[in-house]
Amino acid sequence: MRFPGVGLIVTYEPEELVMEYKRTKFRARCWHCGKENDSAAPANHTDEDAVPNNGDLLLCFRCGAFMVVDKDMPDNVHKPTPAENREIAIDKNLKKIYEAWLAHKLGGN
What we know:
- It contains two helices and six strands, in the order ββββββαα.
- By secondary structure, the chain is α+β, with helices and mostly antiparallel strands.
- The chain has one domain (6-105).
- The protein has a six-stranded mixed sheet, with no helix packed on it.
- A hairpin with a 5-residue loop joins strand 4 (57-60) and strand 5 (66-69).
């Protein structure tokens, strides 16, 4: 897999916080919904270092769009390329992460 790490981008807005795990300040604007996110956390709910690195994959907590960390970009992320989207589409772990996010958004926790 091309992506070294996978994380959730979350905000500190109380209505969006649903899980208690280590967060790291990291500003990134979602390419899809435009949400200005201000922190990142590991998707596997561990106490691992949550600092996103270039090439890591993030999931916007607001809209569920995947984005790739690119600290050379003004918003610190870029929209996945067609090749990256193909990798995302076949990764079973990413599918589970997305399904967990979707279940939460639909109220299934």
